[in-house]
Amino acid sequence: MTPDPMRSTAVMSEDTRETGVGVPAAVRLAEQATLGALLLAPDAVVAMSGWLRAEDFADPWHHTLYATIRELDAAHQRPSPDVVAQAMIDRHGYRIADAPRILDLLAAVPTRPRPAEYAAVVLEASLRRQVACHGVLLQAAALAAALDRSPRVVETVTEQIDAVAELALKGWAIATRATTGTAVPAPVSPPSPVGLLPSLVGADRLLSRHPLPDPDAVADREGDLTASLVTHPDYLAAVTGWLRPDALTSDTWRPVYAALVDLYDTGAPIDPVTVAWRIARTAPTAGPGPNPRDLTAMVEHATVLDPAHAATAVAADQLRLAAHRTATALRADAGNLGLDLRDLLDTTLLHTRALRRAAAPLHPGPPGSDADHHVPIPLPVMRRQRAGTAGRHLAVVPR
Predict the structure, then answer these.
(1) Distance CA 5, CA 19 (A)
(2) In whole angstroms, what is the distance from residue 336 CA to residue 339 CA?
């Protein structure tokens, strides 16, 4: 099957199969009608040139043709069909110009054309593809932050995306006013390069080299952090500010961490005995957690772990998982044409704000540290064993 040239950019990583939404046939028709109407009524170019860019057209040929129309208008040449066809040939050659396609554009124009309304459809489809692509950039930023142990790259990328989203809101407001004929828009600056294809390609390559962390590895790091907090309860003040119990992925360690938070909040003493008893009391609702013998063994092992390092490793996992969920949500929302575009852009701002909060706990670790390669110090007389399908369990097994 021949690939559809109008589909949005596809990425190759397993985690992000596609960055955008498929272009509906109605959008393809709107692109044709917009260009055809401009060729028949070139004066409309001035009205929409402030909010419609060549990059908003999904079809590369439509992109090139609109750019040519804009160039001719800027040079004070009336972009009639024959003039545009010749300009396309002069600039790009006969093959790329494909002048006969101009007849298809003219045929797509309704009897009473409304070019501003057709152009608004083109713009909305473009902004939806852009929002979907932002998910990939956020995933790549989260990965870079996790590798660097610094929130700076997430802060930079989310601020750029916020600027693009806010600019898109302004551009969309201008476009919707233009469809009613109430105002002639002032030119809108082009968006940040954050949404351009080279950025997406680089993000995709980075993600393809670093897939999402293995769930078992994530659970191990959560176990290291939780067990170390039992022996270093003073560090709970720093961790509870950003890590909620329900955010843990491990069924084994979530009840332990919830018990720790409960004990800390009530000012109760924290040690393996009090934690085991609190887990037993909350087991009907929070889950059983590890048995007291395994909990004691893991806490003893965790005395040699640095809770700050363990917390940073968990924060990196949490950030990457949050970015993955964000990208999935943005793609789904962008593809939902029933969702108002303004709501979609506002939601994008909420997602970027949440990711900045998720990246805040990260901080530079010691030279050479990398949680993706962090291997817990082996226990001298026991090892971890996985069993059953209801969750991850720990067992003390002689070597």
Answers:
(1) 15
(2) 6
Q: Assess contact for 61 and 101: CB atoms under 8 A.
A: yes
DSSP string, 213-254: PPHHHHHHHHHHHHHHHHH-GGGHHHHTTT--GGG---TTTH
Are 339 and 132 contacting, i.e. CB atoms less than 8 angstroms apart? no
Tokens of residue 331, six digits: 């793609």
What is the 8-class DSSP label of residue 140?
Answer: H
pLDDT in tens, 9-18: 333 333 333 3
Residues with pLDDT less than 50, the chain: 1-21, 183-188, 190, 192-196, 365-399
> 0.90 exceeded by the pTM?
no
Amino acid at 230: V
Burial of 209 (0-12, 13-18, 19+ CB in 10 A): exposed
C-alpha 302/C-alpha 271 separation (Å) is: 13
Residue type, 295: L
- State the residue for tokens 């554009």: 105
Map residue 268 onto helix, strand or coil.
Answer: coil
> How big is the CA angle at 10 (ends 126 and 91), to the nearest 5 degrees?
60
Name the nearest CA neighbour of 371 among 177, 210, 195, 252.
210
- The answer to whether 199 and 136 have CB atoms below 8 angstroms apart is no
pLDDT in tens, 118-161: 999 999 999 999 999 999 999 999 999 999 999 999 999 999 99
Q: How far is CA 129 from the centre of its chain?
A: 12
CB neighbours of 7 closer than 8 A, spacing ≥ 6? 18, 20, 22, 23, 58
Q: How far apart are CA 39 and CA 334, in angstroms?
A: 31
Q: List the alpha helices (DSSP H) in 41-151.
A: 44-48, 60-74, 81-97, 101-107, 115-148
State how far the alpha carbon of 226 is from the alpha carbons of 32, 58, 144, 236, 275, in Å: 59, 49, 25, 10, 11
